[in-house]
Amino acid sequence: MKEIEVFIDTEEIAEFFFHELTKRGFVPVEQEVDELADITFEYLIKKCIIDEDVSFDSEE
Asked: Entry's Pfam families (predicted)?
């Protein structure tokens, strides 16, 4: 299987959840969508869909 490099941005995930939830009639607050984004990121790691690159975090 070919390996590709993918960058996952939790802020982008949070924005996606916010727009999708409001489109469905929900009114989420920022903290809620941030938590959903973090949970989604952790889920992707747990399912081995992505690997967390710690070196990227230390560059900021």
From this structure: YozD
